[in-house]
Amino acid sequence: MRSVRIIARRELTQYFTSPIAYLVAFAILMLTGWQFNVDLARRVGTLPPDGAAVLGAFGFFTVFFAPLLTMRLFAEEAREGTLELMLTMPVRDSDIVLGKFIGAWLYFSAILALTLVYQGIWLAITTARAYELRPELDIGPVISAYMGIWLFGGATLAIGMLFSAITENQIVAGYLSMSALFILWLGDFSGSVIQNRALAQAVRTLSLQAHYSTSFLIGVIRFEDVVFFVGLIVAMLFITTRVVESRRWRG
Amino acid sequence: MNAQNPTSASLREKLTAWAGVVGGIALVLAGLLYLLTGQLSAAVFVCVLVGVGGLSAWVWGNPDEFQAWLAGRQTRYGTASVLVTVLFVGLIAYAYVLVDRANITADLTRVQRYTLNAPTREAISQLRERGFRVQLVGFFTRNKLREQEAADLITRQYEAEGRGVIEVLYIDPDEEPDLAARYNYQPGFDGTFALVVLDEQGQPFVREMEEGGQPRYMTLYLGEPTERNITTGLKTVASAGAFKVYFTVGHGERSLTQVDDNGISRLRASLEGQGIAAEELPLAEVKRVPEDADLVLIVGAWQPLSEAEVQALDEYLQRGGRLGIFADPPILEAAIVGEAANRFLAEGTPFSDYLWDEFGVRLRDAFVIETQPDLVNGSEWMPIINTIAPHTIMSDVRDEPISMRFARPITLVDAPDERQGRYMREPLLFTSEASFGEANIEEFLTNSRVEYNPAEGDIPGPLLVGVTVRRQLEFQEEVQPRLVIIGDSDVLKNEYVKSVPGNVFLWTDVVDWLTGFSEAVSFAPVSDPTLLKLVVSAQERKTIAVVTMIVLPGLVLLSGLAVWWYRRRL
Fold it and tell me: Is the pLDDT of residue B275 over 80?
């Protein structure tokens, strides 16, 4: 575990010392901030507050920015030859994969933590006593939505890592993982596209959004959704490990 | 001489190597097709043939390469790696399926919005006690997979709570149109639920058999899959037989069994569909309204009620009875169909006098003429009911038009005496200002002429054609008689009930108000303080926008710039 911790810390440090990662965080905050204000304007006088609404949009943005965080993880190291060096070190392949993943997930968590500002604003609005009939913020769905988006983010990062391990080109890795995640996102609407109901149902079961928007986002934690995301993360990390490992015996 | 041309040998090796690749892909495709369709279709068979053929060609044409591939390091490691991966992913998928079946959920919402409430559990135990078995039937096409999953969140709880009592069935109307039709699926029902009661064999009760021998089940349409709708449906079933409506007979009333446009068989079906029993009441024979009557309806009577019948109704009302009267204008129908004149509630008859003396309500010997008939199907006999009084009874009618034909105006007492003063008369329906009440019926019958002539007793519009009566608050003791009087019985006939939504709403609301049925079966939602509307001042919104759109992203950007600047200097 020590090697995992060291690799994770190294990756996390790289994120925080890279301007690109700050630009990604900036873009995310601009987008979610915009979404938050639009949602706020829409609700004034018509709807109750919903702390989870902004996280619905965050999930969609994650589909596009998670690949930006993962595309370099293996592809860059493979291109620069440092991955071979790493593979010769007394570290297990799974430790390398796990360490890099944890580093990325911690950075994702840090960006996610910034969105707590929105929840602080909701609480400030709803607990102020200036008006008699202010609604109360339902904290439950906020908690479940954060749990859901955190697992959702982990799954997107794990998928992105796999594509980064498959190719040596960062752009290709980013493009492939973005495409895959977008398809997995749209899988929620498979019934509108696929004629075969059984196939549409199967595609939808694999969809990331299907396990997030109809449960976590509305305040319900379904154990099967937790297992889906954890299982997806574990499966993707396992396959990524196999791909990295294959470098040892591929010709 | 037997040695092969090196070029052709190389070509054969290349071709057979490609055949092997194509064969492998074809076999994978065959497996996928079989998994997706679950059938050994012609396509699967062709793919298997191509696969086997391609691989055979490779083995035959390039045996050395095949042997090397089998024994090669990449193949050994690769195969082992793929097998381990497939096994691992399979285990995860299996765990997911197990957990999915276990249906373990945690509802974090403050009012447990996605957990069955106490009234729902009570309704389910009532069903169990009364020996009912029901089926919740959801209609979801493949376009509504998302909605189906959202519905499943709640229906799975009903199924778990009502084990052995409640079943859930999903039907795709596109894939199973015949089955959907059996459950009375109609366009626009996609994404909604219906409820059916099952018999001892677990089969839905059949309402009617169609010509082709296809059964039509007795369904109760629930609408959107919310706890409120589903539980109201369950309570409706649980209360089956607890409510009984009697329809008087023997005075030329519209018939419950008459299925043509003029009958009211649809009303009976509607009542029975909700578990309310409907029976005929020959008042002249039985002399007394039965104890189990929740409501007595007089729909389209032509003959006047006798003194004894009026006394029976009075006795019923004084013990808290509920009465609905749908009365047509006098004489008029006789002129058209040539039958005996309508004398029901004619002024001076016992029942008319009773309604006036007791409740201060009188149906006039007149009929409504609409002077702007072009607005409503071009008929002056069909008044425009354009004013609906704000009354709880009309909560569902809202803006839906109500169709009447030959309506009879109603007069309320201006200065009620002590007896009449015990009751509250609340207007319900008015005709338009352009209408008037033609009182000179004799002239109409003779000359077929209608003309507004106040001197001859014609009544200026708008005219009251619907009223409710109930006790004043200070007189509401343990008994609370209620009346609804509507100056037309056409509103309830099959022709209008099947085609005019406003008439259906009027009918159901009248029955609800008179019997208290909806109150008994409806599901009271839990009060949720988190559902109040958001209140934020403009100044607060400006501050929030600055913090979230400028300050927060700006701080992150500045941090990035600082890092970049610092690293540049190193």
Answer: no
Shortest alpha-carbon distance between residue B107 and chain A (Å): 5
- Which residues of chain B does A191 touch, with a Cβ-Cβ cutoff of 8 Å? 141-146
CA dihedral B446, B449, B451, B454 (to 10 degrees): 0
Classify residue B410: in a domain, yes or no. Answer: yes
- Structure confidence by residue, pLDDT tens digits, A218-237: 999 999 999 999 999 999 99
Across the A:B interface, residue pairs with CB atoms under 8 Å apart total 205
* CB-CB under 8 Å, A30 with B553: yes
Is B150 within 8 Å of A214 when comparing Cβ atoms?
yes
- Closest chain B residue to the Cα of A230, Cα to Cα: B92
Collect the ranges in chain A with pLDDT lower than 50.
Answer: none
- Please give the Cα distance from B531 to B215 (Å, whole number): 44
Contact, A184 vs A208, CB < 8 A?
yes
A140–B108 C-beta distance less than 8 A: yes
B113-126 tens-digit pLDDT = 888 888 899 889 98
Cross-chain CB nearest to B74 (options A188, A221, A251): A251
Question: Which chain A residue has its CA at the smallest distance from B80's CA?
Answer: A242
Q: Round to whole Å and give the CA distance between A142 and A216.
A: 9
CATH at B228: 3.40.30.10
User: pLDDT category, B148, cuts 50, 70, 90?
Assistant: very high
Domain assignment present for residue B164? The answer is yes
pLDDT digits (tens, 9 = 90+) for B483-522: 999 999 988 888 887 777 788 888 888 888 888 877 766 6
pLDDT tens column, B324-359: 999 998 865 555 555 557 888 888 899 999 999 999
Beta bridge partners of B464: B430
Sign of the C-alpha dihedral computed for residues A151, A153, A159 and A162 taken in this order: negative
Q: Are residues B212 and B290 in the same domain?
A: no
pTM: 0.69
Contacts of B88 in chain A (CB under 8 A): 235, 238
* Nearest residue of B to residue A127, measured between CA atoms: B535
* B1 pLDDT higher than 50: no
Structural domain that includes position B445: 241-521
Same domain, B365 and B459: yes
pLDDT of residue B205: 86
Both B36 and B74 in one domain: the answer is yes
Round to whole Å and give the CA distance between B561 and B570.
Answer: 14
Cβ–Cβ of B142/A215 closer than 8 Å? Answer: no
Alpha carbon distances (Å) from A244 to A99, A237, B212, B478? 13, 10, 65, 83
B273: in domain:
yes
